[in-house]
Every structure is written in C-alpha cells, then in structure tokens.
C-alpha cells in the first residue's frame, strides 16, 4: 500500500534535531547507532505511513539495521535516507534495497573523512586554542572550546541533514568525490599546524640557563638561540615530540614520561 504523502520542511527539521540529540541513544555493539538512526526518522516515517502499519513496521525495521559513522559529518546520511524513504512511500516502483545499500555505502567513507577532519583536525585546533587561553588557570579556555565546538557542529549537522534530504541520491556523487576530500583535509591540516605552532610557542617553556664563561666573557646560550629564532627550543621540543609519536610510535603516556625524565636530567645538570 503506497501513500500520497509528502514531508514539509518542518517535518525534516524535526528529524534533524532528533538526530542532533539522539544519534547515540541506546548505542550498543549489535546495532551501534542503528537505534538512534531509526528514532531520528521515526516521526517522519509515522507521517508517511499514517494509514499503513505494515509499511511503517518495515520502514522502522529497515532503519534499525547496523549503522556506525562520524555523527557530525554523517548527519547527511539520515537526511538522504529520509528522502529515499519518502520516495519509496509514494512510488511503488522504487526499490527499497537502495535505501539500505546507500546508507551502508556511505557510513564507512564518511566515518573516515569525519574522524580525520573533525575529530583529528578541528577538535585538536579548538582544544589548542582553549589550552592557550587557560594556560594561567582561567576557565575562559574551556568555555571558548565548548562554545566554538557547539557553534560549528550544531549548524553543520542541521545543514548537512537538510542538504542530504534535498539532494537525495545526488548527494552520493558529491560525497564520494576524492578530490574534494583531499582539498578540505589539506586546508584544515594547514590551519591546524599554524594554530598548534602558535600555542606551542606560548605554552612550552624550555629556557636554557647554562652559560659559557671564559674569563670576563660570558656566552648566553639562550640569547644566541633567540637571535637565531625566537622560541627555537620550544619548537625543537614540539617537533621532537611529534616525531616520537608519529615515527617511533610512542604513546602519549610514554611521551609525557620521556619529557619528565629529560626535563629532570637537564635541570639536574644545570642546563635548563
């Protein structure tokens, strides 16, 4: 039984807000985000299948299947699914398997893109700014981080959900564009490196106290380093830390312990 029912912008907006607040609801290892996915679309599905209980049951079951992705960038997927569900509810010739296959095809790539761009790049950038603002113990950094994240993520999730709904299957072609992914990732990586470099110069303290004395001549090593490049030693410490993690595979705990031991030795020898 097919229905001649369309969704309004208000209906889609309600679904997007459900996704915003409930995408991780009842998270479990069997379906991961599947329950939250189905709940996000449930209100709209009830409208589409108001007079078709069997169709509603099938739609809910279809959207309760295993689903796992990065929830911010992945907000476009339930938007696309909702558009396809609306098409299927009104078109008897539409293949419902397209709905599930589209969702399954997109959740993996978007998880990789979202984790690298948002979790791996944007989040550290905002955290670095917050850490810099809270270096003196001020709570401003934590507040700035929280507000910045919400101001970026909430509109983005709403926009992507709505855009996914409006584009439908056309969104798949855009999202699978590898060139677009590379451009966005490169741009955010450059911004991230600039911000992290600035924060490192403000927060990493590694002054060289050792001075070479020969008669009346005193050579200040720290002054020489500053003339070569201001904050040269903090830069070297930051670069060395990065290389140990990236090239040598050090964990964060191992790196912190290594820095602690190195600092203790340098202070004990009177070098720093």
From TrEMBL:
Signal peptide: none annotated. One of its GO terms (biological process) is phosphoenolpyruvate-dependent sugar phosphotransferase system. Pfam families: EIID-AGA. The chain crosses the membrane at residues 110-134, 140-161, 182-208, 228-245, 252-271. Keywords: Membrane, Transmembrane, Transmembrane helix. It comes from the Bacteria. One of its GO terms (cellular component) is plasma membrane. PANTHER family: N-ACETYLGALACTOSAMINE PERMEASE II COMPONENT-RELATED, TRANSPORT PROTEIN, PTS SYSTEM. This is Uncharacterized protein.
């Amino acid at each position: 039984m097919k229905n001649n029912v369309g969704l309004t912008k208000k209906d889609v907006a309600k679904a997007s807000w459900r996704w915003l607040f409930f995408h991780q609801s009842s998270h479990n290892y069997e379906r991961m985000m599947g329950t939250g996915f189905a709940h996000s679309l449930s209100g709209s599905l009830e409208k589409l299948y108001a007079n078709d209980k069997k169709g509603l049951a099938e739609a809910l079951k279809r959207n309760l299947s295993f689903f796992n992705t990065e929830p911010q960038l992945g907000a476009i997927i339930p938007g696309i699914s909702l558009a396809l569900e609306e098409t299927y509810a009104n078109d008897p010739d539409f293949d419902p398997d397209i709905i599930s296959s589209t969702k399954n095809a997109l959740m993996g790539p978007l998880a990789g893109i979202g984790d690298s761009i948002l979790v791996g790049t944007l989040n550290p950038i905002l955290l670095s700014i917050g850490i810099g603002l809270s270096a003196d113990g001020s709570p401003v950094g934590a507040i700035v981080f929280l507000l910045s994240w919400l101001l970026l993520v909430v509109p983005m999730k709403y926009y992507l959900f709505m855009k996914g709904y409006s584009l439908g299957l056309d969104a798949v072609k855009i999202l699978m564009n590898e060139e677009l992914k590379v451009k966005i990732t490169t741009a955010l990586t450059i911004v991230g490196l600039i911000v992290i470099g600035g924060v490192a110069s403000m927060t990493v303290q590694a002054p060289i106290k050792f001075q070479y004395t020969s008669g009346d001549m005193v050579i200040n090593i720290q002054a020489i380093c500053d003339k070569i490049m201001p904050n040269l030693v903090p830069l070297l410490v930051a670069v060395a830390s990065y290389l140990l993690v990236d090239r040598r595979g050090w964990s964060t705990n191992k790196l912190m312990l290594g820095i602690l031991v190195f600092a203790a030795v340098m202070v004990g020898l009177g070098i720093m």
